Structure formats: structure tokens, C-alpha cells
Amino acid sequence: MILPDDKLDGIPLDAPPAYEASTSSSAPSDTKRPSPVVTTTSNSNSSAYPPLKSAPPSSASWFGFASPASRQVRSTVLGLVRDLVKQADEGEASAVVTSSILKSCSDACSANGLSIGALLQEPSVEGHTPLYWAIIKRPPENPSSSPTTDLLTTLLSLSTPLTPATIAEIRLACLLTSDQALFQRLRSSPDFSPLSPTDQLILDASIPPDAITVENVPHDEFAFAVDVAIVRFQTRMRVGKHIELDFIARGRMWRLAFHVSERRRAGQPPPGTWFISLGLLEGSPPTWIDSRLLVPAPIDALLTPPSQGFGSGFFGPGKPRPRPTLSVRLKAPEQLYSTGRHRRSEIVVVLDDGDSGLGTLQYAGCPYIQPDESLQLRLEARLARPEADCVIC
């Protein structure tokens, strides 16, 4: 049937066939359309219709022009990914089947000038990316078992490079599920948490990333502890000027950071000062916190040498004394907030302040720095209003 010209107004000439037309095998058609398929073939004789001659993918993406076949492939891939996400917790999408389906989707996208990585990072499932939902629906890990290839792993392998918006969604999903183990595993990936250019030069591939372990204190739903091992601590501080350690504890995302102040700013120490900060990150509810940072001496430096001062010859050489654990209190005089221009978002403590002894960490030959230049520390915290006496954990 030929429609009058006035009926054609508003209908794009390259619009894909309607769903009913693409699924009906009996309705006649006056105009031949390319068959809506997911995969394509280079052999034109095996197709019932001649191949489409379209502009290169890059030019098409610039101007928003796409062939009906590409649009159909895009729609089909997004639909398949949505189904995989929906079935992720039902045991129906096994690792092998999931990997096979996503591999076919990737091949189809490549054959039609589409980027599977870009499609997987679109908010195509209820306003969020498939990666977000793969984390939300992911079953809890068994600590005794090794990580396996699941839907999330396969999606991540096809989605690189990750955009800042996708990284923010992944961080939010880890926070909502309180999945600290997954969050730390992702942080060790350069695609998710790339090193600064300075750290890339300082840390080679043989050096493991900073290790962060979170422990929820038993029988106290407000308390937690964090054990940290920072690699190449002094070199990174002197050259890069800051080290950031992100973790999830008690339903909140935190950042413990070491800084060297570089310029005068309101609320910051003078330039050249080493200081610590502890704050809430995006998506975290407000809270009080009372905490302390502990730096134990390395095992081979637990004892101080005997004193050689006055009277040592009369009384004999003094006995070695155990080195004390360095400690500094990090408390919030008011609630911390993750957002808000005029609200406190972090606690700042200068290393040289008070008698904590943490100022020694910036000096060469510090006995609290491991022989490999790593620094081991422990943060003990309780989500409560600070009291006069620090009683934590």
C-alpha cells in the first residue's frame, strides 16, 4: 500500500521495522527490509537480502545516523543483557552460558560498528547500568572459596575502559550492599581505581597494592577496625604528596588519607605540613565518630637501644625498652556528612600535634617504617559521640 505524502510526515525513512513486523513470518511486504539479526555474516550469498552499505561507524556515531540493522542489534543486545541481570540470582544463567551469550553480543556489536563496552555502561536497566545491578543481585561470597567468574566479572571484562559515571555507580552498588571484599578487589584493578601518574612511576608491577582489611567488632554494631599496609609510604608522601585509602564499614564509605599540605587553604595546615584526614564519601549517611589511629613498631624494632647517658658506667648498661605504639585520636566534634558545603565532612589531624609521636613518620630512619618502606597501621573506630575518655572497641 502506498501512503499519501501527508501520512509520511514525521516517520523517519531509516526507522527500524516495528516489533510486530519483525516477528511475523506470514504478513506480506512490498518493500524488502534487512532481516533483524544479532550476528552478521561476511558471505552475501547466504543472506536473503543484499548487505547494507552504510557510512563508517565513527562517522555514523558523530551524526547519529545508524542503519536499521545496527539499531536492531543494539536493542537485542540490551534486551539480552537485561535478561541476564534479571536471572543472575536464579541460577539459570550459569557462568558458561553467560559468557557465551555476552561473547556473541560482543561479536555482533563489532560486526555492526557498535561498542559493547559503551552499551554495557548505559543506564539501560531501571535507570542504572547492568554492572550496578550485577553487584546488587550478586550473592554473598564464601570467604573460604576462591573468586569465580560470574556475570559481574564478565561484564567488567567487556566494559573497559570504565567511565567516571560507571565507576561512581559501581562504588554506590558496593556501598548499598556493604560489600567491602568486592570493593577492595575492584580497587586493586587499574581500570576501576587507576594510580596517579606519580604513583605509576613510583610503584612498578611487582609491588602489591595497599592492603585494607575491615573487621566489624563482635557484639557492637557501632564499632569497627581497619588494618592497613601502605607500600612505599615515605617516597609516595614526599613525591606524590598524598595517599588515599577508601573502604566500606558499617554501611558507609570512608576515606583515610595522608597528605602533605601544598598551599594555604581554609581549614588546612600550613604548606609542608604532614597531616591525616578521615572522612565520609558519597552516598554515606551522616554519623558521629570517635576513633584512634595506631602505628605499632615493626617486630625487629620493638626494643629501643639501651641508654648511654649519664650514670650508665656506674650502674652498667641500661636494658632495652620496648617501643611504644604510636597513637593519635581522630574524633569529630560534630556529625560528619558526605555532602553539604557548610557541613563537616572530615577530621583533620596534624602529625606533629600533641605527644602522639606520629610526626616521626616523616623522617628518614623512622623505626616504625618497615624495611621495605611499608607502613602498617590500625584504625579503631566507634560510631558514637566522642566522650572525654577515648574508649574504643
From TrEMBL:
Superkingdom of source:
Eukaryota
What ranges does the record list as Low complexity composition bias? 34-53
Q: Where is this region: Disordered?
A: 1-53
Name of the protein this chain belongs to:
Uncharacterized protein
Natural source organism:
Mycena indigotica
